[in-house]
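Practice set, problem 2.
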Amino acid sequence: MDIYTTLAIPILIATLWLFTAHLSRTSAPPFTNKRICLLIAHPDDEAMFFSPALLALTRPHTGNHVKILCLSNGDADGLGKVREKELVASAAILGLRSRGDVLVLDSPEFRDGMDTRWDEGKIVEVLREAFGGQASKQRDPDGDAPTATIDVLVTFDRYGVSGHPNHIALYHGARAWLDGLMKGKEGWRCPVELHTLTSTSILRKYISFLDAPMTMLFGFLGGLKASQRRDGAGGRRQALFVSDVGQWRQAQKAMTTAHQSQMRWFRWGWITFGRYMVVNDLKRQSIV
């Protein structure tokens, strides 16, 4: 391999990254003028996993109002109150409007831990109290349409990205809430879209921006069936968010300056090489 080829490879890779970031930023936003809630399990989930989506969805021209609901304050090490404040600071860096748009629970029902299993029914109760949607007890297709105070709910998928049981519980709780909301409402459209963050293989998880062109290619190849096709509810099945260099650095700042209590040595590896610091692909779940 000659010197010109050696120099050309990193330039090509960087160009592909910036090109996919440009396409992601300049294409029609998947959500506009929506009330969006990001449902997470722990303070720092928003920065380590969802920062590309948050930075895109909070851009003023989209007209979106984004909130974060965090079901635990991450008190496993006795730092719960510190981590609550860190989440608020991180949210501000990632574009949320105000402190009031961040809600952190401190409940014995939702303790942080790899060995802790969260009750799906308790998650449903929290979502119902926060956003409405009392389930019907019987079939009533001619009754009132189901309603909620948000339009879009974003959370982890059934694999939880990292396999954390608290992340996985959020997916099942969110689905159960929306399934209950639609019970007895056949013929109506669900008022809340559920979008989940796609889990990837361990290899793709740690190739940072190199995964951006790959994710876009996969979306294109399935595209007219997945990311580019609109479903029966009139929305895209997948949404892709790719951060550019400035946004990537902003996401890193959310970790290094806001979540200082969590910056152990291995987190430096994550914020440097983790693809979720650069790429988010959200898949819309079918709720009937």
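Problem 2, part (b): a different protein.
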Amino acid sequence: MGIPYSREINSAFDQVTPLVAAGFEVLQTTKNIAILLACIQVFTTILLILILLAMLGLLCTLNPDLEREKNELVTPVVQWLSSWVFTYGRTANWLLRVGFVVVVTWVGWFLWQGSVAGASVPKSDEGEGGSEEAAPADEKGKKKK
């Protein structure tokens, strides 16, 4: 009585093991997506702050009633930015170009390796394995009759 029972347990374990592996893969994908979303949120927050500052500067620049604020806030910031561009513009331009090439190369390699979630190609053995497992079950059923 112990042998058929242990065969059933082994059979159930063999059926559950791929499900656990698939669940772990889904968990890893979910973790990767959560990290990506956090990075996107931080980037979005920084962009929104920069947009807000640009709009405030534009408001101070265009409104004739805010001439004092324009001279005290906007003009020094614009002068500082323009001096930075004249001083480090050429170096920053080359760094941005090199950074762009590195990022594009890394993304291309990342996609080439199939590291994107859900991009793995199914193995050819998986399709054949299902039909081979079904055939012995049919033969066992025939033997019992």
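Answer key, part (b): Confidence is low (pLDDT under 50) at residues 127-141. Residues 48 and 54 are 10 Å apart (CA to CA).
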